[in-house]
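<instruction>
Derive structure tokens from the sequence

<record> Sequence and structure tokens follow
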Amino acid sequence: MSVIERIQGEVQSHPIVLFMKGTPQFPMCGFSSRTVQALKAAGAKGFHSVNVLEDPEIRASLPRFSNWPTFPQLFINGELIGGCDITLELHDSGELARMVADAQGD
């Protein structure tokens, strides 16, 4: 299985996927930390995360897959939402909570 197929599998297997540096419990960069906080504040319960620092292939290939150069990268229902700034804007507007509720079937 290619790394692109692995990424596609992650994105399709979980309603909410965050490709981040570190883990939700131990984020390894401020952007990843703020994105996790916004997701939790928006009501995301058990979102799936992928630590790109532990998988150099995914870290190298994800920007080509998503056409997004930086981390973290948030996918909801298989669609790239964006990085930290976009996630925080969506949270501030209340839109992130709606997207999370839809993805979780709340």
